[in-house]
Design brief:
Blueprint lengths: L3 E5 L1 H6 L15 H6 L4 E7 L6 H21 L4 E3 L3 H9 L3 E8 L8 H9 L2 E5 L23 H13 L2 E3 L5 H10 L5 E5 L13 H9 L3 E4 L3 H4 L1 H10 L6 H8 L4 H15 L6 H15 L4 E3 L20 H9 L4 H22 L1
Parallel strand pairs: 1-2, 2-4, 3-4, 4-5, 5-6, 7-8, 8-9
Helix pairs in contact: 5-6, 11-12, 13-14
């Protein structure tokens, strides 16, 4: 069984001085934890904040990719880049963890298809069209509806991504954006990290209608482990805790990650978040099971959002605990074959389809 996590914000954590070679206390992801969790591959996404536009957004993405390159160069005995599904399997046979590069927020393109091709040459294999605000490509699910879906540039971008074999990621996209993409994309698409709106009403979650539509076109929807996506009750718990008002502590840490006082302050907020009653592995399995019932067993995967979330589902505090998801699915009657599909085979199939047809 090949295990693949479709979304991890590792480059951001690398920029905050985390050494992925080490087993870092309190960290959600590093290479030793991936090894213990049996995780063969992960998309490490270079996250571009919604507040960055134009050349600033491009520069931020390039800086994160440079930081990722540096850590990959220092860990060649442990991990290697994969640029396609076959690369993942080759690395696994060689005993190495596969890292696939992504970009989260197409603002990094600065409205340029040449930039798209440049990122592809750098090894980027998916781009998440939006993040928490509308951009020059499309509307976000948490935006104002600037375009009513894809922008004129977005309508050029999707076919261009199809043409070069770049996977389109619809996480964070507005429903209208998803529908536009599904109408014009000639290739399967992915929703790399989120949960089912039928079970939790968060705006980031995906509707049954769109799960079906993505599946009917050969794509994949990947379930996250973020408590706010998993359960509406946790959203209420978080609001009542007052800890959301402490998120400025993380902002200060990001500005100066080498300051031990700021690092300690952020670690304390995370500790308090972890003490809240949180949805468990069972709730993650609820969303997986619902997505399978709606879209079919061949169209569901896992995209945790590790390293991009401040707190996880209970029992999944770091990536070494990944097998607990598969154990829970097994208890629910999923066959070993079906679990293998969810664990990574479905996503690898989509990668092959996008690359083969390019």
């Amino acid at each position: 069984m090949t295990v693949l996590d479709a979304h991890c914000d590792a480059p951001s954590q690398m920029s905050r001085l985390r050494n992925y070679r080490l087993d870092n206390p309190g960290a959600q992801v590093d290479f030793p934890k991936m090894r213990r969790g049996g995780v063969d591959a992960s998309f490490f996404a270079a996250y571009v904040p919604a507040g960055l536009q134009g050349a600033d957004a491009t520069a931020h993405a390039l800086r994160l990719l440079d930081i990722l390159d540096a850590q990959m160069a220092e860990n060649q005995d442990i991990a290697a880049y994969a640029r396609c599904a076959s690369g993942v399997l080759r690395n696994r046979r060689a005993g190495r963890i596969s890292v696939l590069a992504g970009i989260e927020n197409a603002s990094a393109l600065d409205g340029s298809l040449d930039r798209l091709r440049e990122f592809y040459r750098r090894g980027v294999r998916y781009i998440t069209l939006t993040h928490s605000a509308d951009n020059d490509v499309a509307d976000s699910c948490t935006g104002s509806g600037r375009w009513g879906g894809l922008s004129p540039f977005g309508r050029e971008l999707v076919p261009a991504m199809n043409h070069i074999g770049m996977l389109v990621d619809l996480a964070h996209s507005a429903d209208s954006t998803m529908r536009d993409v599904l109408e014009i994309s000639a290739r399967p698409v992915a929703y790399t990290h989120g949960c089912c709106r039928a079970l939790a009403s968060h705006r980031r979650n995906i509707s049954d209608e769109l799960i079906r539509a993505i599946a009917e076109r050969g794509g994949i929807v990947c379930m996250s482990i973020y408590p706010c996506f998993l359960d509406d009750e946790f959203v209420k718990t978080l609001e009542a805790s007052g800890l959301e008002e402490q998120m400025w502590v993380e902002t200060e840490f990001i500005k100066d990650p080498g300051d031990p006082r700021k690092a300690a302050a952020w670690a304390e907020v995370q500790r308090r978040l972890a003490e809240l009653p949180r949805p468990s592995v069972s709730r993650v399995a609820d969303h997986i099971e619902h997505a399978v019932n709606v879209g079919g067993i061949d169209h569901v995967g896992l995209g945790t959002d590790y390293d991009g979330i401040e707190v996880t589902a209970s029992g999944l505090e770091d990536i070494s605990k990944f097998p607990s998801i598969f154990d829970e699915l097994g208890r629910r009657g999923f066959s070993r074959r079906d679990i293998a599909k969810i664990a990574g085979e479905n996503f690898l199939r989509v990668l092959k389809m996008v690359r083969k047809r390019a």
